[in-house]
Amino acid sequence: MSESLELEEKIVKMLRTVYDPEIPVNVYDLGLIYKVEVEEGRVVLDMTLTAHNCPAADFIVEDVLQKIESIEGVTSAQVNLVFEPEWSKERMSEEAKLELGFL
Length: 103
Hints:
The chain is of the alpha+beta class. About 30% of the residues lie in helices and about 20% in strands.
């Protein structure tokens, strides 16, 4: 397994520990993570929020950034907050839909 792929797996595992304080599902399974790029220890992540005016936006983005930077092998991390395409519940994992009663 390549070093970048291994690091990406660690990042996904770490993202599953980040929660929106108002929703009992992690940001990865909610479908808020649009892109994870890893190159030589540098991580660039595109993510969105369930709503443009999310009151916990700063908290969530900072939590994602701190947790990614704490992973061994990550030399730098950048989180881009994007709203295109707009988030919808179709982006959620089956587990998240079940947890929130959408199935």
